[in-house]
Design brief:
alpha+beta; Arc Repressor Mutant, subunit A; 3 domains; 4-stranded mixed β-sheet; 15 helices; 60% helix; globular
Length: 338
């Protein structure tokens, strides 16, 4: 392994490369294997402290980045390292580092006799159904509890080579998880593009632990997305569709006319049908979701109130404060202090 070159992946799946020479650091990136959505870029701008007035330019700049496979970035790093340090490296010499992932133990890889294999196949199916139901329902807490005490499972043979077996298992799991999330209300395009992106990331990993860590994060990502859409309830298909739209447009001002058009309703008919099914008006529902997101940001980030207000599309900080108090029972300042 080289001490001169590293590649890193961020929680939002952007790749960076670093070449070191003495005290000098040459940083390449970011690049991503698939384009990000508008909402993902707005969230990235917000978390990166990009001022609201500069966010459109930031989004335009990020969209101009050419998606690049990780292997291409690593090949460039190897070339630069040879030019700068005179050191020849192969792709196998460059580790992909993800400091935010959790460590979990790999599953055992041996099955001793036919009866044990038969029993374990049934166990694997039961576990698969359990996990996919958790994702479909957005039951993140149960999923976390299951992961904390996960049983050892051996998937059926899908490849002759050890690492390929784990990658194939990941691909199958990602496909099932995406379908379960879609059944839970997640936008089809978002669910499938997330699966595609995760599979591409898995393919460049070169050790079992990294694949397993990525798999755990993948399951939690899907479950958390569905949980946010469903709000812990058993919503109607229309409520799920409205929640999915709200999630994709969370940082934009409310536009129920646009919402109605995307769902192929007239605005009056959508408002009436939504109120009949949920007991809430469209505006109340969207502002509740915005307030819940604001509460999460107040609790788990150090972003200022004005930054959160701008990010969530409120017309002013005072408007944000009034809405938040109406739906959360406290002012933003009181909520953060508590």
């Amino acid at each position: 392994m080289s001490g001169h070159v590293d590649t890193y992946i961020t929680p939002r799946y952007y790749f960076y490369g670093v070449v070191r020479s003495g005290e000098t650091r040459l940083i390449l990136g970011p690049t991503r294997q698939l384009p990000a959505t508008e909402q993902q870029l707005r969230e990235l701008a917000f978390m990166s402290n990009v001022p609201a007035e500069d966010t459109p330019a930031f989004i335009q700049a990020m969209r101009s980045l050419v998606p690049m496979p990780l292997e291409s970035l690593q090949q460039i790093l190897c070339t630069l390292n040879y030019v700068i340090n005179g050191e020849k490296l192969s792709l196998e010499d460059i580790a992909l580092k993800d400091p935010v992932e959790k460590q979990i133990a790999p599953a055992p890889q041996t099955v001793h006799h036919e009866q044990a294999a038969y029993a374990e196949n049934h166990t694997t199916l039961a576990i698969e159904q359990t996990l996919m139901n958790m994702i479909r329902k957005g039951d993140t807490e149960s999923l976390k509890a299951w992961i904390a005490s996960a049983p050892a499972v051996h998937a059926g043979p899908m490849a002759q080579e050890h690492l390929r077996q784990y990658k194939n298992t990941f691909i199958v799991t990602a496909t099932l998880a995406a379908r379960s999330a879609i059944r839970g209300g997640m936008d089809v395009e978002e669910a499938l593009s997330t699966s595609d992106l995760l599979i591409r990331n898995c393919e460049v990993l070169r050790d079992v632990q990294s694949i397993l860590r990525l798999q755990v994060n993948m399951l939690l990502t899907y479950a958390e997305q569905v949980e946010r859409l469903r709000g812990g309830t058993t919503p109607t298909p229309l409520a799920i569709a409205v929640a999915s739209w709200t999630h994709r447009h969370l940082s934009e001002p409310i536009d129920t006319e646009k919402l109605a058009q995307e769902l192929h309703y007239s605005r009056p008919h959508l408002s009436r049908k939504f109120k009949e099914e949920t007991g809430m008006t469209l505006t109340d529902f969207i502002l509740t979701k915005k307030s819940e997101e604001a509460a999460r940001l107040l609790a788990f980030t150090d972003k200022s109130l004005i930054a959160i207000s701008d990010y969530l599309g409120f017309s002013s900080q005072s408007h944000f404060a009034r809405v938040f108090k109406k739906y959360m029972g406290k002012t933003p300042t009181e909520y953060r202090a508590q």
